[in-house]
Specification:
- There is one protein chain.
- This protein is of the alpha/beta class and 385 residues long.
- It folds into 2 domains: 138 residues, Thiolase/Chalcone synthase (Peroxisomal Thiolase, Chain A, domain 1), CATH 3.40.47; 217 residues, 3-Layer(aba) Sandwich (Peroxisomal Thiolase, Chain A, domain 1).
- 38% of the residues lie in helices and 18% in strands.
- The strands form 2 sheets. It has a 9-stranded mixed beta sheet with strand order 3-2-4-7-1-8-11-10-9, sandwiched between helices. Strands 5-6 form a two-stranded antiparallel ribbon.
- α4 packs across α14.
- The radius of gyration is 19 Å and the shape is globular.
- The structure holds coenzyme A.
Length: 385
């Protein structure tokens, strides 16, 4: 298996991008990425997108984006795994490099969510829930995560205030991210007094609806050394796994099995344990999800996620910084783009280029990208060499 290097990263502003189309932002992120890489060589394109059909009425994205990139001569493939679509696109690109199928593999994540009203956006997102057992009965993603939050509160005594601190931390980090949708600081009271969405989750516990795109260019370590444009960042491990979509079909509500398995696979491939990792970008689509993810991956013990957040363990200057980008909560969550945007942040941190939100001296980072309420998960381990 060939060793994988990330030689280019690109991103757009996240937010309500009314003046731009899906193809505009996908190509913008790709062009930024190629400029960063210092090469325009691409042997394949993988595009992560959850639901362009429901959000903008456009399917057949692989050809559309290849056309607008001016690269109709190479294989182009759309990848879908709900909100984990971007992570899966990066995983596909990794497999192409590792197996030698491609020497330069471009992964793009994109979603254009704000062209429809909130009702249609909620319907589109809920199509990633189990239609027969969940969505048909009217439950939405805030409702599903509210049930996970309740289960965690009942079992471990996790409090409303602890959940709020996840949002406070991520907004603090995001206030230093120029690409973030909501780059402002908030207090615990801002969260506790915000509109109730699905009890116990309030508006400021939820990631927003967002337009945005991100791209990464992968090659072999051998090729990256020839280009020598940036400090070498490698993807040393990747893993993905699934779980039952319906919460009622799961054995356990306070641990996410797909997250646990995907992280374990990625760490095993990298020859690492979780103790070797310096920081992580994880899928905080709701405040409870960051806590569940950290506990499921073994970064924090079961039931300890809330207290650890309050104690600053996951803060930018804490022992294990989580979501230095601002996470999905502050940076925004254009669902298909999120997994690629996580890689963007980790590579920037490992290159030492994250300016005000740079974590000093980091050498190893982890990304965790989740589909739906944990029905799928993709993890990557990245290392500065
Ligand atoms: N965080 C912070 N502010 C938010 C926000 C969020 N998640 N969502 C909306 N806002 C802001 C808007 O910018 C707007 O501000 P303004 O009045 O200053 O313009 C205000 O809150 C009201 O926005 P609106 O669009 O009316 O909110 P809404 O009530 O229709 O939607 C949610 C709020 C929480 C329902 C929506 O953001 C949502 O569904 N989030 C979850 C998305 C999701 O499920 N993703 C997949 C995860 S698996």
């Amino acid at each position: 298996m060939k060793e994988i290097a990330v030689i280019g990263i690109g991103i757009t502003k996240f937010g309500e991008l009314w003046e731009k189309s899906l193809r505009d932002i996908a190509v913008e992120s790709a062009m930024n990425c190629l400029e960063d890489a210092g090469t325009d060589r691409i042997d394949s394109i993988n595009i992560g997108c959850m639901s362009s059909g429901l959000f903008i009425g456009q399917e057949h994205l692989a050809s559309l984006i290849a056309d607008y990139l001016g690269r109709l001569d190479i294989p182009s493939c759309r990848v879908e795994s709900a909100c984990a679509s971007g992570g899966l696109a990066v995983r596909n690109a990794c497999m192409e490099i590792a197996t030698g199928v491609s020497d330069y593999a471009l992964a793009i994540g994109v979603e254009k969510m704000t062209d429809v009203g909130m009702g249609k956006a909620t319907y589109a997102l809920a199509s990633a829930a189990d239609q027969d057992y969940e969505a048909f009965h009217g439950i939405t993603f805030p409702g599903l995560y509210a049930m996970l939050a309740r289960a965690h509160m009942e079992r471990y005594g996790t409090t409303r205030e602890q959940l709020a601190q996840v949002s406070v931390k991520n907004h603090y980090n995001g206030s230093m991210n120029p690409n973030a949708q909501f780059p402002f600081k908030i207090t615990q009271d801002t969260v506790l007094n915000s509109t109730m969405i699905a009890d116990p989750l309030r508006l400021m516990d939820c990631s927003p609806v967002t337009d945005g795109a991100a791209a990464v260019l992968l090659t072999t370590v051998e090729e990256a050394k020839k280009l020598k444009k940036h400090p070498l960042v490698v993807i040393s491990g990747f893993g993905s796994a699934a779980d039952a979509i319906a919460l009622s079909h799961r054995k356990e509500l306070t641990e996410l099995q797909a997250v646990k398995t995907s992280a374990a696979k990625a760490l095993k491939m990298a020859g690492r344990t979780i103790d070797d990792i310096d920081f992580a970008e994880v899928h905080d689509c709701f405040t409870i999800s960051e806590i569940l993810v950290l506990e499921s991956m073994g970064i924090i013990g079961p039931g300890k996620g809330g207290p650890a957040t309050v104690d600053g363990y996951t803060a930018l200057d804490g022992k294990f910084p989580v979501n230095p980008s601002g996470g999905l909560k502050s940076k925004g969550h254009p669902v298909g783009a999120t997994g690629v945007a996580q890689i963007f942040e980790v590579v920037n941190q490992l290159r030492g280029n994250s300016e005000k939100r740079q974590i000093p001296g980091v050498k190893t980072g982890l990304t965790q990208n989740m589909g739906g309420s944990g029905g799928s998960s993709v993890c990557h381990i990245l290392e500065a060499k």
